[in-house]
Amino acid sequence: MQVKKLFAKQETLVALTLFGLCLVIGFINPVFWTAGNWFDLARSATVTGIFAIGVLIVLISGGIDVSFTAIAVFAMYTTTVLLKDAQYTGGMWLFFVIAALIGLGLGLINAFFIARFRLPTLIVTLGTQSMFRGFLLFVIGSKIIRDIPPGMADYSKAFLFTVTDDRGVTVGLHSAVLWLVAIAILAFVILRYTMLGRGIYALGGSREAAERAGFNIARTQVFIYAFVGVLAGIAGMIYGGLNRQANAQDIVGQELDVIAATVLGGASIMGGRGSVIGTLLGVMLVVVMSNSLVLMGIPATWQRVVVGAIIIIGTAVPALRTLRRQRRSVNVEPETLAPVGGRT
Amino acid sequence: MGSPIAFALAVQPFLSLTNISKSYAGVRALEDVSLTVYPGEIHCLVGENGSGKSTLIKIIAGVVQPDAGQIVINGKTMHRLHPIDAIREGIQVIYQDFSLFPNLTVAENIAINHELSRQKRWVNWREVREIARQAMRKINIQLDLDATVSEIPVADKQLVAICRALLQNAKLIIMDEATTALTEREIRSLFDVIHNVQRENVAVLFVSHKLDEVLEIADKALIIRNGKVVLDVDARELDRSKLTYYMTGRNIEETVYEWQGDSDKPPLLEVRHLSSRGNFEDVTFQLHAGEILGVTGLLGSGRTELALALFGAIPIDAGEIALDGQPIVLRSIQDAITHRIGYVPEDRLTEGLFLESSVGNNILARVLDGLKGSGQLLDRALMKATTQEWIGRLSIKAPHAELPVKSLSGGNQQRVVLAKWLASKPRVLILNGPTMGVDVGSKMELHEIIKQLAREGLGVIIISDDVPELMQTCNRILLMRRGRIVEHFDRRQITEMDLTQRLVAV
User: Fold this and answer.
1) How far apart are CA A63 and CA A59, in angstroms?
2) Is ipTM beyond 0.90?
3) pLDDT of B327 strictly over 80
4) How far is CA B440 from the centre of its chain?
5) Does A206 touch chain B (CB under 8 A)?
6) pLDDT digit string, tens, across residues B24-68
7) Contact B122 A195 (CB under 8 A)
8) Residue B87, class by beta-carbon neighbours within 10 Å (0-12 exposed, 13-18 middle, 19+ buried)?
9) DSSP string of A218-255?
10) CA distance, residue A126 to nearest chain B CA (Å)
11) Domain residue spans in chain A?
């Protein structure tokens, strides 16, 4: 029974798929199993992973946020411009602090419209996405900044440790992955062990019941969108640091991929369901998939098709299972116990 | 019945309402209503839809303020009762939708309000389970603590709601139409639970319009009609006809349906050895034109699945279906519609109606193809005429056809669903729980409509576990158990008592 329950979970399914995929790709191209490739995977998963955890929390609460990419690029670009103009030569920490604060501010704008006016979250965030992006390009700037402050430039080489492989190439695991680990743990604890987190699940399960039970819906929503804003600011800054440039045209456009990875990991688009573990697995699956296509020499344009297909299959499987369960609902008696009476 | 009334007189009442009145926009919802509830008493609040029951509940819960009258709880006069005061005094309302979280586990649903009211910030899962376990022990029930609420039966959801209410130190639990979605056997066990609640010295205000239930469970009954108290009595002084009379203000005669047709003639619908794996096995029966055939059984007996299979909504693995002696294949709902088989679902709110849409649009939804005038456009005049025809024939009480269906009462909504199907002139009509959630008066009228339709030659199948309903409308009744037809009764050869016993027998 326990085993059956485990297999009914989307998380298990995604984990198994991921594992199978790794075996297949590793078999086709042994480069897959090298440290260098895994460090690369970790690096690609970091930004998407942080975004996805933000999306997870919004989805659980029954909302949807498409503005986080705009917040990320806004925070990253603005922070870079500010510190460049200030001729700041210190470390990366200040970049993170400022980007997180900008993210918080923009997240609070979302929260204000959603909690105060009870507007649909999709509409609000579609609107703010456009606003944040437009404001950034028009007021702050649109040129690519390649000449970034030294602290940010150094960050791209902030490895946790490095390995030199047989061919003499030195590869390293970037420290940004620590952000992902820390944020994942934080989100896990909030969602699982605080009343605030349970309130987020409750809100996504039934808003009316949550209100009647005495949850403070507005406060919960303010937390959610502010938290997502902060995560977006940090992820945006990591993105800029890893790429060693600040491009105001970047990041926006990735939001659907992130939402898809989250849904693939078991979060329900209807709210109320989802887990941090599942989300991380979903992100890994998408990242490994894209990475493997490159390793197998499949053109990048095909990646879009494959990612789309995975998403549809990944969400169709649990839906089919629910459908089947509904259809076969009666326990039919194996043998007729009483004769069918014909007393017409 | 060890009813506490005898000695309760010496005890202070938990709740007493005196001369409560309430108007909405000049319309009197309640007039001079008084009600006294003692601790540990089961008090039934009886009335048809629209009689003022829900307004009264809302006033007790503090959601609505009365225009006049006095509310005394625990000896304290409440000048203005807010919802939070009502909860603090121990009044808990279990609404029809239970207000549960479908995505959370049983344990968390039971404990969550309790945790919230203690203003906890952290969740201790061991404690949550322990709280839930204790609440269940109080009323002597057992549920799987880790089951997700969306996956448990309605009856269990109700138990979860009751446990949750008890944890809030409830002194009075108000249950609003608690049995609407339950089967006979589930109602039995709910009544056991209510008696357990009573033993904890908690009063229960049981709101219902089902006569048998009221007669069975009540210590006292308050009957209201059009916002006024018409009777406030000890339940022992009540019987069914008295209850019906006071509730509706008229005597309703219960008649039996006699089928006049000839059973030697070829049947309208014939089902032979029909099976659907996992749903039902080897089902055989005939239905003649003009017959009303009841199909009964407990929830999970396969009755609903059989109906769905006849409507093409569930795949058939073996056996055959013939209409007028011609074998037909039902692979989809579209096939069933082509053969003019209609199905009125159990849950009219989600499956049978477009709630936001107008009465007229709902009635016409099935027949738009037939209403085309010249040039493939819809013929407005014809649409209007058809709508008016059905509103008239089924006496749907709607101020006008443009109002959204959700603004109508339960009984009238059910008539709109019926009209929707009848407009497409079906030959076989399958009605699943045709009067669920409908009050006595409209129920009788609906039964009359169904009988009239059958007399006009329609073949009707009623799926229901409401025994009095089956006895009043059907001329034959099939009993299903675990996916098989186990008995077949002629209406004239069976009594209500017999049928009830057979139905709940294991």
Assistant:
1) 5
2) no
3) yes
4) 12
5) yes
6) 766 778 889 999 999 999 999 988 766 788 889 989 988 889 999
7) yes
8) buried
9) HHHHHHHHHHHHHHHHHHHHHHHHHHTSB-TTSSTT-H
10) 27
11) 11-322
Contact A106, A127 (CB under 8 A): no
pLDDT averaged over chain B? 85
Look at A109 and B52; give whichever has higher pLDDT: A109
- Report the distance separating Cα B437 and Cα B389, nearest Å: 25
- Domains for chain B: give ranges and CATH numbers: 1-90+172-178+203-251 (3.40.50.300), 255-340+426-506 (3.40.50.300), 353-424 (no CATH)
* Mutual angle of helices A255-264 and A276-295, in 10-degree steps: 120
Which tokens is B347 given? 């849950």
Tokens 């009954």 -> residue: B221
Whether the CB of A337 is below 8 Å from some CB of chain B: the reply is: yes
Cβ–Cβ of A193/B123 closer than 8 Å? yes
Express each pLDDT in B141-177 by its tens digit: 889 999 999 888 888 898 999 899 888 888 999 998 8
Tell me which range, A181-185, B5-9, B218-222, is most confidently predicted by mean pLDDT.
Answer: A181-185
B227: region left, alpha or beta (phi > 0 left; psi from -120 to 50 alpha) = left
HSE-CB for B245 with a 13 A CA cutoff: 7
Which residues of A fall within a CB distance of 8 Å from B487? 338, 340-341
3-state secondary structure of B129: helix
Q: Which of A194, A202, A338 sits opposite B112 (nearest CB)?
A: A202
Instruction: List the single residue in A with minimal CA-CA distance to B281.
Output: A332
* Whether CATH 1.10.3470 fits A11-322: yes
pLDDT tens per residue across span B393-406 = 888 877 778 888 87
Residue B501 and residue B320 in contact, taking contact as beta carbons nearer than 8 Å: no
Mean pLDDT for the stretch of residues B177-188:
78
Among candidates A60, A57, A44, which has minimal Cα distance to A286? A44
Instruction: Please tell me what DSSP assigns to residue B10.
Output: T
Mean pLDDT of chain A: 86
In chain A, helix, strand, coil percent, each to 5?
Answer: 70, 5, 25
Measured from the Cβ of residue B267, the count of other Cβ atoms closer than 10 Å reads 19
- What is the average pLDDT across B446-462? 89
What average pLDDT does the segment A101-108 reach?
97
Q: Which pLDDT does position B382 carry in this prediction?
A: 83
**Chain pair A-B, CB pairs under 8 angstroms:** 114
List of chain A residues whose C-beta atoms are within 8 Å of the C-beta of residue B301: 330
- What residues in A contact B99, CB-CB < 8 Å? 206, 208-209, 212-213
Residue A131 corresponds to which tokens in the numbers above? 């606003």
Distance from CA of A331 to the nearest CA of B (A): 6
- Is the pLDDT reported for residue A28 higher than 60? yes
The pLDDT tens digits for A294-319 are 777 777 777 778 777 776 776 677 67
Helix H or strand E segment including B294: strand B292-296
Q: How many CB atoms lie within 10 A of CB B445?
A: 17
Instruction: Tell me the shortest Cα–Cα distance from B103 to chain A, in angstroms.
Output: 5
